[in-house]
């Protein structure tokens, strides 16, 4: 089966494709979220040490994973846009940033609500928490820099520089619990050894992570469609769009 | 089954404020993001083509 992928690198042909894909990703997110929440609250048992408060990790960990993953994907698209001058890649980078920032906020918020009963404090300046906060500021920096530059192509280039420089922060976040003596616990799930948690807890976390992933794709597709319209509002194909007709 | 009653479920073993504060705010964030995005998409559709409409 030969698919002409380059066809979809043009905003005009990607726009309707993204519109068709969005409901499927929302549906997948909804199904996974229902399954994930069911496992989180009704299948997974209470934690021996943390009681019921540990259930916060079912959103905290997926949000934290997505906050880092979205940043890397954003930096890659921004870099591709910078290197090859492809409009759609840069639009994707811009579309990912607000959702990445939201995931970072959720990771910090839920972490804080977990930290209060478990650590006795909402916040500590340890390496994991501080580097995650820097990630939030990197997202804000990327978005405000782009918003401050009127010419979209120049905004893309300036944003790409921030995104690419800031990517060094992602391994710092990931390895912070190893490199420094942090209050934040080490990874319970890693690629190199078997997880140190109950199977049902792990399953709930993975299903929720997939739900967050599908949700992120769905909202990014909506946002990239809006960005395409905003940037190409005067092109002939936009004027001919059926959904524009009253 | 983890919970003896609905009240037991909402109490979350005494951590209700923290657990529901986390799940509630997360759900609200997602709902808000979708609402804001839909509005942005509608605004972009309305604005499209308006720059050089034929007289």
How are the SSEs placed, and which strands pair?
The complex is a heterodimer of chains A (246) and B (55).
Chain A lengths: L10 H33 L13 H28 L2 H33 L7 H22 L3 H15 L2 H11 L19 H33 L4 H4 L7
Helix pairs in contact in A: 1-7, 2-3, 2-5, 2-7, 3-4, 3-5, 3-7, 4-5, 4-6
Chain B lengths: L5 H6 L4 H32 L8
Characterise the protein shown here.
The complex is a heterodimer of chains A (246) and B (55). Chain A is mainly alpha-helical. Chain A has one domain (15-244). Chain A is built from 8 helices and no strands. In chain A, helix 2 runs parallel beside helix 7. The radius of gyration of chain A is 20 Å and the shape is globular. With 55 residues, chain B is mainly alpha-helical. Chain B has a domain at 15-45. Helix content of chain B is 69%, strand content 0%. Chain B has helices at 6-11, 16-47. The longest helix of chain B has 32 residues, at 16-47. Chain B is rod-shaped. Mean pLDDT of chain B is 86; it is low at 51-55. The A-B interface holds A 41-42, 45-46, 51-53, 55-56, 59-60, 63, 98-99, 102, 105-106, 109-110, 113-114, 116-117, 215, 219, 222-223, 225-226, 229-230, 232-234, 238-239, 241, 243-244 and B 1-3, 9, 12-15, 18-19, 21-23, 25-26, 29-30, 33-34, 37-38, 40-41, 44-45, 47-52.
